[in-house]
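User: Sequence recovery, please. Input:
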């Protein structure tokens, strides 16, 4: 168990509705799907709830386990949401051209805000490590806060402009490649002609 406290059905249902559900709804809306690992945790929690109510002599241990699974599910939900927004931003953080042409604030301001979210994520990770075997819920708020701050940074990104810019860049690279290829072929032909001409001299 993640805590020495004994929980009740009401504790489990309150946690499900008040703590887990808002973050989970946010995640599903962002990903447009339900992550398998979260579904597994929920399934395990519900099985323990059913077992607790069917077998009174096993009630407490199963309710505690159900609560523990919900805590784990909530932590995983917050972490996945944070990681999702981080992946969305990384391309802009690592690409100077995208930062220059597709972000609606100055580059220093954009990078500063991103670095602030990185500090929040490090804090969340530290809290998670410190709470291993004690209470996985401790770092949930920190991860969720980091995810929300990442989303706020994303609001400065013009995703439509970024898609257009990437299409243009891909086309430009393809065009440059084809021009290089054609010039190479022409150079080879010219070299062959010159070589043949020199044979007659």
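Assistant: Recovered sequence (201 residues):
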């Amino acid at each position: 168990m993640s805590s020495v406290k004994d929980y009740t059905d009401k504790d489990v249902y309150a946690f499900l509705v008040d703590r887990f559900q808002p973050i989970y709804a946010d995640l599903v809306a962002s990903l447009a799907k339900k992550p398998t690992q979260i579904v597994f945790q929920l399934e395990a929690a519900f099985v323990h709830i059913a077992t607790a109510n069917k077998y009174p002599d096993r009630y407490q241990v199963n309710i505690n386990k159900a609560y523990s699974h919900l805590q784990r599910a909530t932590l995983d939900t917050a972490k996945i949401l944070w990681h999702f927004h981080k992946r969305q931003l990384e391309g802009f953080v690592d690409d100077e051209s995208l930062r220059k042409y597709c972000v609606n604030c100055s580059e220093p301001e954009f990078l500063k805000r991103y670095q602030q979210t990185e500090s929040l994520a490090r804090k969340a990770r530290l809290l998670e490590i410190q709470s291993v075997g004690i209470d996985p819920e401790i770092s949930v708020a920190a991860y969720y806060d980091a995810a929300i701050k990442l989303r706020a940074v994303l609001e400065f990104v013009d995703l439509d402009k970024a898609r257009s810019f990437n299409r243009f860049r891909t086309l430009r690279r393809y065009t440059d490649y084809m021009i290089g290829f054609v010039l190479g072929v022409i150079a080879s032909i010219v070299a062959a002609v010159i070589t043949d001409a020199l044979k007659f001299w």
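Helices lie at 9-31, 36-54, 59-94, 96-102, 107-130, 140-154, 159-199.
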